[in-house]
Predict the 3D structure of the following.
Amino acid sequence: MSTSWGYGGAGGAVENLLRQAQEQQRRLAEFQQQRAELRVTGESPDGLVRVTVDGDMKVGGIDINARAMRLDSYTLAESLQAAIDAAYASFAERQQELMTEMLGGSDLVRQAQAGTLTPDDWFRQFGVDLSDPTRGLRR
């Protein structure tokens, strides 16, 4: 008696899972590479200070307009902080865009971003119905 483990049997399911895992691993590596190469710039509202943040979320460059030298130290510090905050906000936004691309723009990502993702919605994606009182009794 021979058992077929081809695409129609249990072996096919395992192969399919392995392919999916490899695809996710490839996407994650691509995301990490894109994030490492990411460079974003933030600018102060007065336009006198620009800050660049790199893929490690480190400030990689500060550009201060010569007109900013006329500012008092407190105002210059505020402009610098505003530019840094803008750069980090831009980094977070771009990182979220990359992650959404990696996940294929799934509904779960959109729901999580909107704050409307419930535990029921999350578990339902994996075939678990939290409203079923017998779910733990079945094997």
Remarks:
- The first helix runs from residue 10 to 37.
- The two ends are 28 Å apart (CA to CA).
- The beta strands are 40-43, 49-53, 59-64.
- The first strand starts at residue 40 and ends at 43.
